[in-house]
Amino acid sequence: MATTKAREDIKNDLKTLKEDIKVGAREEGERLRARAEAAEARLRNKADEVRGQAEAYYDQARVRGREYYDDAAERFDEAQRYLVERVQERPMQSTGIALGIGVVIGMLLAGRRH
Asked: Which DSSP string corresponds to 57-91?
């Protein structure tokens, strides 16, 4: 009879231990889930912050790029006007210079082939 009582006590102890492990695992799972949610929230906040910085850098680069483009276009137009004026002032001299440059380039290219 004592052994039966001991067996029942051991069974009850094992049952209690099993339930304690389940409860502990459930509580630990909840703690881990809460920590994971907090980490996810921090990660989302950081991602939003980085996205905001990237958008600000993009906007600055776009504005600067537009300024550089406008400046380059203006300089190109000035150079084109200057060249057209010089050609119109001295058409024979301009034609001779262009012909000379063409001959030099042609000789350079022909020299490469041989």
From this structure: HHHHHHHHHHHHHHHHHHHHHHHHHHHHHHHHH-H
Predicted confidence (pLDDT) per residue in 26-54, tens digit: 888 888 888 989 999 999 999 999 999 99
Q: What is the pLDDT of residues 52-110, one digit of tens each?
A: 999 999 999 999 999 999 999 999 999 999 989 988 999 899 889 989 999 999 999 98
pTM: 0.47
Distances (CA, A) of 59 to 9, 28, 54, 99, 112: 74, 46, 9, 47, 47
Q: Which long-range contacts (CB under 8 A, 24 or more apart) does 53-60 make?
A: none
69, two tokens = 């483009």
Give residue 82's identity as a one-letter amino acid code: Y
Sequence-ordered list of residues with C-beta below 8 angstroms from that of 87, at least 6 positions apart, any chain: 94
